[in-house]
Amino acid sequence: MKALKVENINKYFYDPQKFQVLNDVSFEVEKGEFVSIIGKSGSGKSTMLYLLSTMDTVYDGKIHLNGELMTGKTQNQLAEYRNEHLGFVFQFHYLLPEFRLIDNVMLPALKLGKKPVEEIEDKAMKLLEMLDLKGREYKAASKISGGQQQRVAIARALINDPAVIMGDEPTGNLDSKNTKVVFDIFRSLAKEFGQTIIAVTHDDDFAANCDRIIELKDGKVISVN
Amino acid sequence: MGINKKIAWIHLSSKIRQLLVAVLSVTFGISMYIFMNGFMSGVNKAQTDIAFTSMAHLKIYNDLNSDPKPIEVSDTDDNSIHIVHNSKNIRYTEGIKNSEPILESVQNYPEITAVTEQLNENVFIRNGVTRINVLLSGIDVANEDRVFGLSKYMTDGDLFELEKRPDGIILGSKLAASLGVTMGDNINIMTADGIAKNFKTIGMFETGAVGVDKTKAIISIQTARQIFSKNPNYATEILINISDFNKADELAEKMAPTTAFKVESWKEGNDQLDSANQLRNILAMAVSLTILIVAGFGIYNIMNMTVNEKIKEIAILKAMGFNGGDIVEIFLTQSIIIGCLGGLSGVILGNIISRIISKIPFSIASLTTLPIEFNRMDYLMAFLFGVIITLIAGYLPARKASKIDPVNIIRG
């Protein structure tokens, strides 16, 4: 079963004038793969990622995640699906600043509500430890450094053991040391836990070390290797 | 505690000052609502109390029909004609000749709290050269006090003295002043039929209704029957008080078929009193609702600001799988907490303000302090209105937040 299957995606922007962002895009991603989507700015790579994330639902074509057709689901169904099966890491961490680290990490699991709170807390502690944030669990999210915040955001993306983790320039805002940390985390997630990782990036080093690169240009896939 | 409520609580508690401002605006609105309504019903009550010192809820009297009746002409004989000069309208019966059956029949209505009979006639009072037209009221002292609470309004002397003193008279305070008499002075009464009798001033009253205080004199009903040469059960009117004066109309309708006399509710001919009450209520409602709506705008504003401030958090919550309903819940919970806190403190503050105002001296007519009513319904309504308005004011920004498209926000 493919982790991701995209069929003949077309997407238009209408503002300020009609413009085709994605032109008949199709590709597949295997389970446990670590894939980068690259391309110049305006190539449609971020737009592609937001379609994959199920947050943007206005497009022609079909998107399957883990063999399930996403196209045509209602907003609430998609929200539920995102909660359970998808994890996001963005360029900016978007943590809830008044919440402690541990609360931020627990948030998606509390929303899912499938496990008792103690178990969720335990898991959040382990994730924070894994991401080298041990001892800072009860600090407010606004009181730690940018690199640390990004790692908290990753922990938050992992709390529900999502099948697919998506990153939009996940290292775009980090220095080279933290970039390496984040990359290594992704690497090991894909290898050890079989989680599929799809990251949009313009960092060539980051992309070069992935399993596969999908390159977009003017809304078309120009190379998959 | 659900995760949505937890987020709502953290949003609120991280901005204590903003929370305080929002709560205070509701507090103020609700306390004003309570104060305004309490004050207005206090004024209404004082107003009706004064009116009912000289007016009963129901009045039964002989409604004399004074339409001149045409004289009967029978055309039996073609050769004769009838000529009537100066036709006069004759009153066959005056007043209520025998009040006994009516007084007995009203005992059947449980809502009636007090009944009394009066004999009212216009007379002249003379004191030396002063001569004043006065309404002389012969009263059944004990029952009169039950209906009107007259003894409360006595400024001098004892009302119950009348029962023992056939020569005693009690005057309205302003009437006594214009006659120039004080306690113990003698005055002379002259009826329309030319009968004169001396009375001794044994008391004075002041109801606060100037028209009454200036023109009314009171004697006992037995004495009145004597000087007007009436039989022992004669009365000009029977006055009835009931437990809820607003139901006077219904009772009047119910009693009307049981007697030949006119049964009149206080509302007939006193529309100004009723309409003034209604207008004051409308005014109080309008002012206090306006204040509550202004408070609502305050909450709307604050919640809108919060939503704009947290727009990125909302986007990320949606990305993580919170749906529109969750977002509405998060922000609506905040409004409800603000509404309930503000409602509770508003009810308390409203009560405190009312208590303080009700102690302010205000001596006009029979009032000693500003009149304020403490009506449980007002407090309930104030709380309810406050919560409803915060709900509406909070729902609009919450709905806006739920419609945020996370893609637009996160992509920047």
Shape of chain A: globular
Q: Please indicate the percent range of residues of chain A in DSSP E strands (runs of 2 or more).
A: 25-35%
How many strand segments of chain B? 10
Q: How many individual domains of chain A?
A: 1
What class do helices, strands and sheet pairing of chain A give? alpha/beta
CATH topology of chain A: Rossmann fold
Helix vs. strand class of chain B: alpha+beta
The arrangement of helices and strands of chain B along the chain is HHEHEEHEHEHEEHEHEHEHHHHH
How many structural units, i.e. domains of chain B?
2
Cα end-to-end separation of chain A: 20 Å
The fourth-level CATH homologous superfamily of chain A is: P-loop containing nucleotide triphosphate hydrolases
Secondary-structure element order of chain A, N to C: EEEHEEHEHHHEHEHEE
Backbone shape of chain B: elongated
| Total strands of chain A | 10
Q: What does the largest sheet of chain A look like?
A: 6 strands, mixed
Mean pLDDT, all residues of chain B: 86
- Which residues of chain B form runs of ≥5 with pLDDT under 50? none
Could you say what the CATH architecture of chain A is?
3-Layer(aba) Sandwich
